[in-house]
Structures are given as C-alpha cells and as structure tokens.
Design the sequence.
C-alpha cells in the first residue's frame, strides 16, 4: 500500500500504551497508571442502518437487531438446475456503478496463473423478455447438503471437529466472468433449487442465509414490472482503521475457516494470485487480521478472536432467525471482530482502489507473556497490529509461536457498511515493511 500525502493521526492503541510502559521499565505498574481510552464498541445493536452508512449500494436494508443485510437475489442455472446468487463487487467502475456494487479493480487479477479461479459463465435471455434479467449458466456449484459441524476444542480453538456445511466442486468459484466480457464479478451462490428453502439447517442454502424472499410485486420499492427476489444474509462485525464495520462472509479455501465463518468451502480459491501478495503487482488479495486467543466474555469490551466467537458467539449452532440468542450475541459483539485492511471509504485514492473482497488471513496469537500482563486487548487497526508484531514478537506471533504473517487461509468477505463514522485514516503511520509503497509514498503534507 502506498501512503501518500497523509496527515498522520498519531494515536496509541491500548497495546501501544502498555508496550510503551514496558519499555520504560514499569512492567507491573500499569495498575497505578491512568487507564487508556476504551476501544471502539462494535456499534448499534438495534434498528436499521441508515442508508448513508451503507457501502454496498444495492443493499436493500441492514437490520442491526437481527444481524442481516438484505441483498437482491438473482436466478442462475447449473446443468439445467436452478441456483441463486448475489453480486457484491465488480472489477470495473462502470458495471459496479450500474449494478450498485463495490468497485474492486483487483478482482481483474483473480485468474492470473489460475484459470479455474474465475468461472467462465454464459448468459442467455428469454426471447420474450421485456424487462428482466438474463440467466447466468454457472460452470461450478456448491453442495449445501452436508451438515455443518463445529465442536469446541479444550480451549475453544482449535476446534476438536470442523466439517463444512457447504462444499464447492472443483469448478466452483464465487468469481465469475461472462463470456465476451472482461469484467470479473463476485457472485457467490447462496441457494440451490426452486424451494422451499431450508433457512434453519441450511440443507439447500448457504450457512448465512436467514430468509429468502421470492420476487413479488408487493415487495417492490415502486411501480414497474420488475420485482426482484431478495435474500437476508447474516452479517459479520469487525473493524477497519479503528472504526466498526459490517461485512458478510461467503467462501473460504480452508475447511476450518469455512466452518467458523459459516462460509462455503471453495478449494479453487487457493490458486488465486498470489500468496502473501497484498498490493503487489498482479495480486487479487488483501489482508485481514483475525486473533486466535484474545479475551473472551460477551460483555467484555476487550473481547476478540476465534476462541471468543466459539465461546461467546454461538459459533457451534446453526444460524437462523429463530435462534434469537445467537443473533443477540452477535449484535452485542460476539463475532471474532477481525480487522480488515483497505476499505472503500478510505481517504487516499490508492487505498480505496486496493480494496478486494478476497482477504488473506494473518492469524495472530498472543503469547503467554501478553496474556499474563493482560496485554491481549482488542485491536482495531491493521498498522497498529503490524507494528506490534514487528516490534514485540514477545507479545504477538502467528499460531504456534511462528513469525507473524499469512497463514494461507482466504475468505471472501464483501463489505456492506460501517456503524459509526466512516473509516478514513489509519490510526498510525505504517512501520517500514508493513506496506507496499512506491518512491515518495511517505511524503507528508
């Protein structure tokens, strides 16, 4: 990432304050110091998110009590059978604007060195079509019939058993390109068949599908012959640049990650360009920062991580509108609260253009020293995390004490909105080596 012409906001995180105290030789004296500011909350827990805070223009509504985003649902076919998909991103600005999608130019790189990483699909329209969509014919499809199984391990994570509830075939990818076009779309399949749809145990729907609404004139926003179907998808809460955000999780190349994320296991994504790529030439990937062993407790403002979501976020249960305990827990911060990198509202043009829905996980594990000194507190900004990992490997490592960095797990996580004020600036200047820059990138106004 380049960081050019930026006014740096030099604010310390809780960990930064604690680390500074340690370096000053006052370890153990934190209790006598003034408490640092509390981390941002995970946002409102009720009501409808205002349209002004919705990133994805095509989103119909975002329900913060029931933790879902309602998106237009599109009909497609696979070998003559009906499938249903959503569209969230396009690699070119024109189609993104036309369809109300996030603009993600890096998606154009998705098939570099891996032709099966993007499905080549065909498009047909009915001869008598007056005002309606053409049908996308997919090359691959998920199988939603397996039963999702997640059993907590002795410490919560890693789980003792993890079986994905949705598995894509060898040709399935959420990324598609229509024959004759250069645009790559993020179009994950979320249901199969002609109904009824199982939105409790998800035998024919994706794990995050909470409701399917057929096309119906009474549900239309205004007059006209085109009244599209829609789907309610369970949200995920996280952070970007210190601000609470909302996104969805649809696919992952790692089976355990897919189970925890309630996503489709899509092995084909492993070949996308390229491992550890971030913003280098030809990469389709961006960075996301999950924590393994942050603090737990649903009412704990420092809670974060995979153990937290398993213990406090009802991760072992099926998601449904009838599971009100699960929805309440997630609305109150029970998600893993991952930290994303680039975001569509960031001030710098290059940071917005670097956004991609395909996130490469940089799993962090707090050391026993960090836990003993209660330094494993909630993180909300990627460069604060990278600075901490670079300067204090005695506090933060990759799982198993390995050097901090990518663990090869990919997650398709389209962003849909933000909860307080929009993410615009990183909280600190990136340390050398943590960003992809070009000459002059560190010049300041």
Sequence:
């Amino acid at each position: 990432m380049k960081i050019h012409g930026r006014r740096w906001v030099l604010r310390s995180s809780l960990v930064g304050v604690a680390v500074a105290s340690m370096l000053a030789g006052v370890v153990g004296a934190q209790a006598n110091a003034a408490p640092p500011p509390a981390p941002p909350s995970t946002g409102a827990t009720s009501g409808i998110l205002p349209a002004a805070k919705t990133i994805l223009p095509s989103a119909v509504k975002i329900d913060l009590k029931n933790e879902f985003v309602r998106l237009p649902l599109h009909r497609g076919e696979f070998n003559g059978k009906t499938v249903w998909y959503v569209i969230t991103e396009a690699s070119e600005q024109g189609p993104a604007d036309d369809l109300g999608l996030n603009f993600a130019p890096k998606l154009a790189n998705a098939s570099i060195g891996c032709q099966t990483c993007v499905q080549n699909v065909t498009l047909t329209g009915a001869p008598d079509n007056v005002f309606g969509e053409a049908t996308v014919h997919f090359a691959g499809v998920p199988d939603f019939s397996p039963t999702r199984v997640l059993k907590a391990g002795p410490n919560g994570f890693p789980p003792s058993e993890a079986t994905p509830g949705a598995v894509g075939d060898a040709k399935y990818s959420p990324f598609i390109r229509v024959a004759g076009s250069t645009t790559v779309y993020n179009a994950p399949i979320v249901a199969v068949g002609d109904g009824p749809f199982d939105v409790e145990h998800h035998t024919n729907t994706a794990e995050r599908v909470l409701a399917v609404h057929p096309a119906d004139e009474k549900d239309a926003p205004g007059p006209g012959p085109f009244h599209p179907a829609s789907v309610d998808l369970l949200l995920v809460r996280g952070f970007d640049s210190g601000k609470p955000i909302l996104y969805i999780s649809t696919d992952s190349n790692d089976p355990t990650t897919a189970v925890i994320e309630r996503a489709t296991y899509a092995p084909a994504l492993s070949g996308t360009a390229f491992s550890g790529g971030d913003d280098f030439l030809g990469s389709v990937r961006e960075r996301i920062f999950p924590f393994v062993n942050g603090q737990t407790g649903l009412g704990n403002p420092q809670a974060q991580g995979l153990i937290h979501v398993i213990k406090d976020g009802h991760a072992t249960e099926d998601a449904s509108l009838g599971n009100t305990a699960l929805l309440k827990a997630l609305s109150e911060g029970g998600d893993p609260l991952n930290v994303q990198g680039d975001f569509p509202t960031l001030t710098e043009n290059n940071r917005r253009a670097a956004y991609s829905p395909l996130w490469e996980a940089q799993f962090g594990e707090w050391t026993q020293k960090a836990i003993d000194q209660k330094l494993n507190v909630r993180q909300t900004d990627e460069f604060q995390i990278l600075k901490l990992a670079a300067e204090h490997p005695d506090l933060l490592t990759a799982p198993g004490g390995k050097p901090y960095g990518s663990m090869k797990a990919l997650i398709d996580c389209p962003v849909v909105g933000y909860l307080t004020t929009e993410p615009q600036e990183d909280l600190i200047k990136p340390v050398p080596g943590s960003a992809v820059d070009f000459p002059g990138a560190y010049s300041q106004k």
User: Anything to note?
Assistant: The radius of gyration is 21 Å. The longest strand covers residues 68-78. The longest helix spans residues 14-23.
